[in-house]
Amino acid sequence: MPRVLGIDPGTRIAGYGVLDVHRDGRPHAFIECGVIRLKPDHALEARLLDLRTGLVDIVDRLQPTVIAIERPFVGRNVQAAFSIGEARGVALLIAAERGIAVRQYPPAQVKSTVAGHGRATKQDVARLLRLQVTMPDGRVPADATDALAVALCDAVHSAPLPPPQANLLR
After folding, report:
1. Annotated active-site residue in 8, 50, 146, 154
2. Contact call for residues 71 and 106 (beta carbons, < 8 A)
């Protein structure tokens, strides 16, 4: 059974969400979600190192078979897009180190999959995600919800994976 780690990359807060994918019609199983909070007063390179440490812990503990991540979107804030790109690079490097498949989805596809249209608000995505995935009671951080939405997008749109590859860095 595929286990998808959805990642919402960031250099201040990075969200993650993990689902076990059922291909037999059963609902996909929620495993865990959360955020990695990075210290905003630290230099970027220190935050990226902390992000790597946090993501490696999650990957090693939860053993995903695929990492799903949004494709970059450059809106009006180019600097924010660069920062997200740097955080995405950390996640992609970890996937390569561990031989984990990576699938990327445009933000509009993630929103459309969860909420029915590509212009859904974060609130729409969070509300409709709860109808599709059994999540813990209480407040789930927005970045974790976004990551779970990416994981659900992958669960809905992905084909079965080929057998795992060996570590790409050997």
Report:
1. 8
2. yes
